[in-house]
Write a structure and sequence with these properties.
Radius of gyration: 21 Å
Shape: elongated
Distance between the termini: 60 Å
Number of strands: 0
Number of helices: 6
Order of helices and strands: HHHHHH
Oligomer: single chain
Helix content: over 70%
Number of domains: 1
Structural class: mainly alpha
């Protein structure tokens, strides 16, 4: 949302929007956007290349599924290639896709949590039966 505001309403170029987004904030995405901005300014690469480099640097820090990595890479492929309005709508669409992925992850976690609780209870019961 903030990135969309930086691009659409503040009319900042993408590199400046990334830099502004990462100022005075904390978190993984803030560090990521700061790194993309640094790569853009230091190495004078395209946003797509800088984005891919940054994703590569953060891959060992984030535990994501293949679908989530694909979404992250696709963000970099589209940013900076269209006008402000299209970038804004693209960011909204990607945010919705990430919300869907987050819901799937929550459902998967809940399902596995239930499975592990049941396995723990059954394992405890099996140990009691073996000891009797």
């Amino acid at each position: 949302m903030e990135m969309e505001n930086e691009i659409y309403y503040m009319s900042r170029p993408l590199g400046q929007a990334l830099s502004s987004f990462s100022r005075n904030k904390r978190g993984r995405m803030t560090l990521f956007s700061k790194r993309v901005s640094e790569i853009l300014s230091l190495q004078e690469l395209t946003i797509e290349t800088a984005w891919k480099k940054s994703v590569g640097e953060f891959q060992h820090q984030w535990i994501l599924h293949r679908d989530e990595w694909n979404l992250l890479f696709s963000v970099g492929e589209m940013l900076g290639k269209t006008d402000r309005e299209n970038q804004s709508s693209f960011l909204r669409m990607m945010r919705e896709k990430f919300v869907i992925q987050e819901k799937r992850a929550d459902e998967d976690r809940a399902r596995k949590e239930k499975l592990y609780k049941n396995l723990g209870a059954l394992g405890g019961l099996a140990i009691v039966l073996v000891l009797i």
